[in-house]
Specification:
Layout (H helix, E strand, L loop, with lengths): L4 H12 L2 H26 L5 H22 L7 H25 L5 H8 L2 H11 L6 H19 L7 H21 L8 H21 L10 H28 L2 H4 L2 H17 L5 H23 L1
Helix pairs in contact: 2-5, 2-10, 2-12, 3-4, 3-9, 3-10, 4-8, 4-9, 5-12, 6-8, 7-13, 9-10, 12-13
């Protein structure tokens, strides 16, 4: 007997909240939006200093989301949840995103994306410390993805400084450890986790800005102002929420696979919006990276 309209209506909300539907959707948001944020940061840095840029971005997004959730009746985080959100916000946003902004003063947006692609390897190492080593197929996918990053790197004109490279390496390690650590902690539920981490991370970033003597721009350009709005709405609220969802419902190898897709996406946005050139190594690297992500995804599905 066919389903009645009432039955279909009752099943539709459950299907829309099914992780089998939401995980691919969240991954798509991570791949596209976070791939574009490297160019967004580059545009915003035309007027804004790095830590102040990241701090204002996450403070505005975090407070707006927190206020909306409280208005909708969601309970505030408990003291334990605030503590865990503070630690994770410091690692992911304060050190992870803040150091990427700092490094992009010295290296190109494409190089920043390439360097951050080492993050899944750090995540695999830290997960292994908790007894959750990647499976064989996931390890193969990680190795393929990292090889693609190397190939992508061969075709780029690298002029980064040692300080920028070190900052990106620390950023990738901090983001990876914060991601692995938070999976085993009591965090705020749902989108409240996003809001709490952004508020806590913004406090750390504004502290870094104060210590480094950064000042608000007097006459920011229109492009940099639009870039910081884009980073706050899409890069922070939408994409960061998607990341926390995937991190909770998928294995670390799949949750961090965005780091391999972001470099080719960043290159693509650079070509379309900043007139950057794409060579044969860039195209080959993109293909290899996507192959690595496909291997990780198929390994997760088989499990």
């Amino acid at each position: 007997m066919s389903d009645t309209p009432a039955t279909l209506a009752a099943e539709t909300p459950r299907s829309l909240t099914d992780p089998r539907f939401l995980i691919p959707l969240a991954l798509l948001a991570l791949y596209v939006i976070w791939g574009s944020t490297y160019l967004g940061i580059r545009f915003a840095l035309e007027s804004w200093p790095p830590f102040l840029l990241a701090g204002v971005r996450f403070l505005g997004a975090g407070m707006a989301l927190y206020g909306f959730l409280r208005w909708r009746g969601m309970a505030p985080p408990t003291p334990l949840q605030w503590r865990n959100a503070a630690v994770t916000g410091l690692l992911l946003l304060g050190m992870g995103n803040g150091l990427v902004c700092f490094a992009e003063q010295r290296v190109s947006s494409g190089i920043a994306a390439v360097a951050v692609a080492s993050m899944p390897l750090f995540a695999a190492l830290f997960s292994g410390m908790y007894g959750e080593w990647p499976h064989r197929r996931e390890s193969i996918g990680l190795a393929i993805g990292f090889a693609g990053v190397i190939v992508l790197n061969l075709g780029s004109s690298l002029a980064g400084s040692s300080i920028g490279a070190a900052a990106l390496l620390v950023a990738a390690a901090a983001w990876a450890f914060g991601s692995v650590w938070s999976r085993r902690q009591v965090m705020p539920p749902g989108p409240m986790n996003t809001a709490a981490q952004m508020i806590c991370g913004s406090i750390a970033l504004l502290g870094f800005a104060l210590l480094s003597g950064e000042r608000l721009p007097v006459h920011p350009s229109l492009r940099s102002s639009l870039a910081i709005v884009y980073l706050a709405v899409f890069g922070s609220i939408i994409a960061f929420s998607a990341y926390l969802y995937v991190l909770k419902h998928a294995r670390p190898a799949l949750a961090t696979s965005y780091a391999y897709v972001n470099p080719p996406v960043a290159v693509l946005f650079g070509v379309l919006l900043a007139g950057e050139h794409v060579g044969p190594f860039d195209l080959a690297g993109m293909a290899i990276i996507l192959a690595g992500v496909a291997v990780i995804t198929l390994a997760k599905q088989k499990r």
